[in-house]
Amino acid sequence: MTSELTPQEAARGALRAGLPLADGRHEEVAATANHIHSVISTLRELDFGETPPASSFRAGEKDADATL
Question: What percent of the chain is modeled with pLDDT above 70?
Fold first, then answer.
């Protein structure tokens, strides 16, 4: 498990990306990044088994094998 992003790390990362943060925004950006990371971590743990990729979905087409 990785440690959470600190406000200082968020500021450095934003600066490296060319997106300098205004003073006082470091904590909010770090908190948001940490939340996104926790959601993605949860999604990575899911077992989708035989679920086809989203690119195979065709809106409006009926699936003859679907059950209700």
Answer: 87
